[in-house]
Automatic annotation (TrEMBL), chain A:
Protein name according to UniProt: Metallophosphatase
Gene3D superfamilies xref list: 3.60.21.10
Automatic annotation (TrEMBL), chain B:
Top-rank lineage group of the source organism: Bacteria
Protein name: GTP-binding protein
Protein's organism: Leptothoe kymatousa TAU-MAC 1615
InterPro entries: CobW-like_C, P-loop_NTPase
Domain CobW C-terminal as annotated: residue spans: 148-236
From TrEMBL, chain C:
Protein family according to the UniProt entry: Belongs to the metallophosphoesterase superfamily. YfcE family.
Domain of life: Bacteria
Database matches in CDD domains: MPP_superfamily (cd00838)
Family matches, as Gene3D superfamilies: 3.60.21.10
Name of protein: Metallophosphoesterase family protein
Species name: Leptothoe kymatousa TAU-MAC 1615
Xref: InterPro entries: Ap4A_hydrolase, Calcineurin-like_PHP_lpxH, Metallo-depent_PP-like, Pesterase_MJ0912
Pfam family, one: Metallophos_2
Domain Calcineurin-like phosphoesterase: 1-219
Length: 234, 270, 270
């Protein structure tokens, strides 16, 4: 098995095509897209259609929702807060209008039917973290927070896409003395796991013009590779 | 003349009558018959049928005909609930071995007088006291639940409450419950014995709509708040849409399991 | 200075009165309350009045929030269909019972309170609905304390009191990326504590007694208090006021009105 894990297409069809091309040479068995398939810059309708109908011989993409999809749901009032305050803060009124016009109601419905995340083997694949779609994990996130996200994910590998960066953070809980006292007295101490676990940023397909990044992972042997694909004008 | 064995088993609730009989039903080498008068639709009937499909279960109205025309070597077990009058002419007229199972602490009782053989119950803590402090005989409350599928954590909770006395004093509880993964469980509780026993019944998983096989609950006790019990049980049952959703998930899982099993089977070498 | 921290009163006025007199006898200087003043119990208005008249600093619990905002707890926060059904009955009853000024007061409650190196929340710093169970992974528990910048985190919501010390925490992190490859970074934390105040009005430690905690800010000493009170009064009021009678049965056994969610870290996908 060999997974290709993508995120952050953000409506950038050219970038997605370039990545699909690159994937063809990698003996990939599963294609995961960790949210943000739509965005402010690209052609959102075109990318949704492309995802909905893969061509003959192409893998069926498995899509979960990301930050931009959640903004879309908020705008259309199908979940979360009304009127997308987060989006308003990020792109302003004109941006909100442009974004609103770029996606049809049918597409919103389709996006809404996509997954929350994927739990496969000992991996969690998700846009932010189980805390929130907006949870942005980076190599600079405090160690205890990374550790917490891994515990919450109940996984040895947490793949996420919110930051748009490609990185691998290996977190090892080395030591902790935990003592619990209840009404019945001091309780037996808890075992604290010592094995390292990984938070992996899978990169971004469409956020930086001209350069797409994504991740390859083989769950059997834990082999991880970051791919960078240049496209467009040389 | 054809030969057959007839065994009558009696005793107070919870001593293990059905369990004692079950040891003989496990061996299908002879034609086996089971009869529990006045217990139509009861949990024991269904449990015997589910666990020992080769046993012929005789309903009250067939009893006379079947008993009159038993095959050679037949073994017949008649379980007599505590509510049966052991002195009734019908029972007295029956030939056969009379077994009473009684709590070891009980020295004399109508069961002792009636029986050819008295077996001490393995359930030490069962009192054998039928009447409550007020001298009232316990009531039996039966509720057929066929077609109902339970939310598992809700069922656990309501059984803890029931057996803990939240809806009246329960001395005995037995039930067959269907769960959303398609499995059916036999649940057994005897007042004085620790815990509630759950046994998975070896039945095909029912994952297509509401199960069309018997499930139900039987409670023996005092001052049972029957209406409240029924309400609480219904609150634990799954609605159509929820059940459908569960069944889809379990069908999917079953499909995946089968695929994995097929993939891991060794290939045939020509 | 001696602090008394109380939580999860749930409209149980009898229990609150008993705890307040115990606090007086223990000569505490200041009381803090971690919310859930209402819900399940028969005297929501009286409990809020008492807390207000004593000007006890209080943070908002999940039940207080639901009464203000309308029932918005996601269904997955209930452990079972039965618990959800009962939770809704209790919510509807409380919603009808409470006075407008009480609702307004509950709306003003903050999600957390700070005092020097102490932080007070209902569930966890993340959410009023999250359970900080004593069995939670130590590093995850530590993250909750660190996120508040406090040394001691007081919480409630689980209804079972405990003190947890988290000492000598060490983590190591290695970053690899196309842009950088750092040497392993070590992370260490000094001693942190989580103190769960238990529940005044809805205990679930298996006895009907109310629980709360005392904390000495000078010596950092914690005392878990268990206070007996006349719970039959509350049980009778539950029946008289038309709340489900099962609440009274559970309260008298220290079983809580509805059992808590099995999976405290469960994430709502709605």
């Amino acid at each position: 098995m060999n997974w290709a894990i993508l995120s952050g297409i953000e409506g950038n069809l050219t970038a997605y095509e370039a990545v699909l091309q690159d994937i063809q040479d990698q003996a990939v068995t599963d294609l995961y897209i960790l949210g943000d398939v739509v965005g402010l810059q690209g052609d959102n309708e075109a990318i949704i259609q492309r995802l909905q109908s893969p061509r003959a011989g192409e893998l069926e993409p498995q899509v979960c929702v990301g930050w931009w999809e959640e903004q879309c749901f908020s705008l259309y009032g199908v979940s979360g807060l009304q009127d997308a305050p987060e989006l308003m803060a990020k792109v302003g009124g004109d941006g909100v209008k442009t974004f609103w016009k770029s996606i049809s109601r049918e597409s919103v419905r389709w996006l809404r039917s996509q997954h929350f995340g994927f739990h496969e083997q000992d991996c969690l694949l998700i846009h932010g973290s189980t805390v929130s779609y907006a949870d942005e994990l980076t190599p600079d996130t405090p160690a205890i927070e990374l550790c917490d996200r891994l515990i919450r994910a109940d996984a040895n590998h947490l793949f996420c896409g919110r930051s748009g960066l490609t990185f691998e953070c290996s977190v090892t809980p080395v030591a902790l003395r935990s003592t619990v006292t209840t009404l019945d007295g001091v309780q037996a101490p808890q075992d604290c796991g010592k094995t390292p676990r990984q938070v992996i940023g899978v990169g971004s397909v469409g956020r930086s013009p001209g350069q797409a990044t994504y991740t390859l992972f083989s769950p059997e042997n834990g082999q991880l590779a970051f791919r960078s694909v240049n496209y467009g004008q040389p | 003349m054809q030969s057959f064995d007839l065994t009558l088993v009696a005793g107070p609730p919870g001593v293990g009558k059905t369990t004692w009989i079950s040891q003989f039903l496990a061996n299908p080498s002879r034609p086996l018959f089971y009869l529990c008068p006045c217990a139509q639709d009861a949990v024991d009937f269904a449990r015997i049928g589910y666990c020992f499909p080769w046993v012929s279960i005789i309903s009250d109205d067939q009893a006379a005909d079947v008993l009159a025309d038993l095959p050679d070597q037949a073994q017949v077990f008649i379980e007599l609930g505590f509510h049966m009058d052991l002195g009734s002419p019908l029972l007295v007229a029956l030939p056969g071995r009379r077994i009473a199972i009684v709590p070891p602490s009980l020295d004399s009782s109508e069961w002792h007088n009636w029986a050819d053989e008295v077996i001490p119950s393995p359930n030490q803590q069962v009192s054998g006291e039928l009447a409550s402090a007020s001298g009232k005989l316990p009531t039996i409350w039966r509720s057929p639940l066929t077609g109902q599928v339970f939310d598992p954590p809700s069922l656990d909770e309501v059984l803890i409450e029931l057996t803990g006395g939240a809806y009246g004093q329960v001395t005995r509880l037995k039930g067959i419950f269907e769960l959303p993964d398609g499995q059916a469980f036999y649940v057994d509780f005897v007042e004085g014995l620790p815990g509630i026993e759950y046994t998975e019944l070896k039945l095909p998983r029912w994952l297509e709509g509401r199960p069309d096989r018997f499930s139900g609950l039987e409670i023996v006790g005092h001052n049972l708040e029957q209406k409240t019990i029924a309400q609480a049980l219904l609150t634990c049952c799954l609605a159509d849409d929820v059940l459908l959703q569960y069944q889809r998930q379990y069908q999917q899982l079953q499909l995946e399991d089968e695929t994995v099993a097929a993939e891991t089977e060794p290939g045939v070498v020509a | 200075m001696k602090l008394a921290v109380i939580s999860c009163i749930h409209g149980n006025y009898e229990a609150l009165k008993a705890v307040l007199s115990d606090i007086e006898a223990q000569k505490a200087d200041q009381i803090y309350c971690l919310g859930d003043l209402v819900g399940y119990g028969p005297y929501p208005n009286e409990v809020v009045n008492q807390i207000r008249s004593l000007e006890i600093p209080t943070c908002q619990g999940c039940w207080d929030e639901d009464i203000v905002e309308g029932l918005n707890a996601c269904e997955c926060s209930y452990p079972s269909q039965l618990a959800e059904h009962r939770g809704k009955l209790a919510h509807e009853w409380t919603n009808k019972e409470i006075r407008p000024d009480v609702r307004e007061y509950l709306a003003t409650l903050p999600l957390s309170l700070k005092r020097d190196n102490l932080c007070f929340v209902h569930g966890s710093p993340n959410s009023q609905h999250e359970y900080l169970l004593p069995s939670m992974d130590g590093f995850a528990a530590l993250e909750r304390v660190l996120s508040t910048d406090a040394d001691v985190l007081f919480c409630g919501h689980t209804h079972v009191p405990y003190v947890r010390e988290l000492a000598d925490a060490k983590l190591s992190v290695t970053v690899k990326s196309p842009a950088r490859s750092d040497a392993p970074q070590q992370f260490q934390a000094t001693l942190k504590r989580i103190i769960n105040a238990g529940s005044v009005g809805e205990p679930r430690h298996g006895r009907p007694n109310a629980t709360y905690v005392l904390y000495d800010t000078d010596t950092a000493q914690v005392t878990l208090r268990e206070v007996a009170y006349n719970y039959t009064k509350t049980c009778l009021a539950i029946l008289e006021k038309g709340l489900p009678s099962i609440f009274a049965w559970r309260l008298a056994r220290g079983m809580e009105f509805a059992e808590r969610a099995d999976d405290p870290t469960h994430v709502c996908e709605r």
